[in-house]
Design goal:
7-stranded mixed beta sheet, 262 residues, alpha+beta, disordered N terminus
């Protein structure tokens, strides 16, 4: 009885710790020449991180970590920046990003229970939560695609007097019925986009200068995030004006010379 109660309390504590336990931040930097970089930061709520370590699973083992405050909680984090030779390569990289659901699965213990009378430490959720679940094919749980984005478009369009830069992302909604936790309570997600010039348009985020930040509060709903900026070709304009002035001056000079020859 005492062992069963301990298992139950451990399960309850784990559920509580899953509230806001993972913060995933993505930073996109677009350069003028069509290259760029993506910085991904995985933040794990400190108490949850310490619990993972006690369970023998350190997601950041051997890596440099930092701590920061976000939404009233302290997170232990690790960041990685990758540079890309084209916007197309950045699109592919962003489409490959997934929610760190493996951390939740490890914490819950997804290993099947071979002996229900003597459950392992890694199977507390199977015992407490899933013992009455019908696992027959007819009652199979719906699958969940844990990719963060369903669509990404990063473009540069050059015209005579200006170059426009645009970013568009479609969020891939998470299926709350396919998991044993609340995705919105578990994951906090932010996306920032830095453009070559001041932001002229932003949908779904807050823009300041040449950067826009999207705070994604509901990952179970389909959402769209867009941003745009433009660079005016001042040199081209000045060059055209100078050319026009030069042609006008030459024309006046030719007319003047023609009149004096007569």
């Amino acid at each position: 009885m005492k062992k069963a109660m301990a298992i139950f309390l451990s399960a309850v504590m784990m559920i509580v710790m899953l509230t806001g336990c993972i913060h995933q931040d993505m930073g996109v930097k677009m350069n003028k020449d069509g290259t760029g970089a993506v910085t991904t930061t995985l933040g794990i709520e400190k108490e949850f991180y310490n619990s993972l370590k006690e369970m023998g699973s350190d997601p950041f083992e051997g890596k440099t970590v930092t701590e920061y405050e976000y939404d009233g909680s302290t997170y232990v984090a690790c960041s990685e920046t990758k540079e890309y030779a084209s916007y197309e390569d950045m699109e592919k990289a962003l489409l490959e990003l997934t929610y760190e659901t493996k951390l939740i699965e490890d914490a819950q213990g997804d290993d099947s229970v071979t002996d229900e009378t003597n459950p392992t430490e890694d199977s507390i959720f199977d015992v407490v939560i899933d013992e009455d679940t019908d696992t027959t094919p007819d009652n199979a749980e719906p699958e969940n695609d844990n990719h963060i984005f369903s669509s990404i478009r990063i473009e540069k369009k050059r015209e005579l007097f200006r170059t426009t830069y645009s970013f568009n992302a479609q969020l891939n909604p998470q299926n709350a019925e396919a998991v044993d936790y609340d995705p919105n309570e578990t994951f906090k997600v932010t996306l920032s986009v830095e453009m070559p010039a001041e932001i002229t348009e932003a949908k779904g985020g807050d823009a300041e200068g040449n950067k826009v930040v999207f705070d994604i509060t509901d990952i179970t709903e389909k959402q769209e995030f867009t941003a745009a900026s433009e660079v005016n070709h001042t040199g081209v304009v000045i060059g055209i004006i100078a050319a026009v002035v030069a042609v006008a001056a030459l024309t006046v000079g030719l007319i003047y010379m023609s009149k004096h020859k007569k």
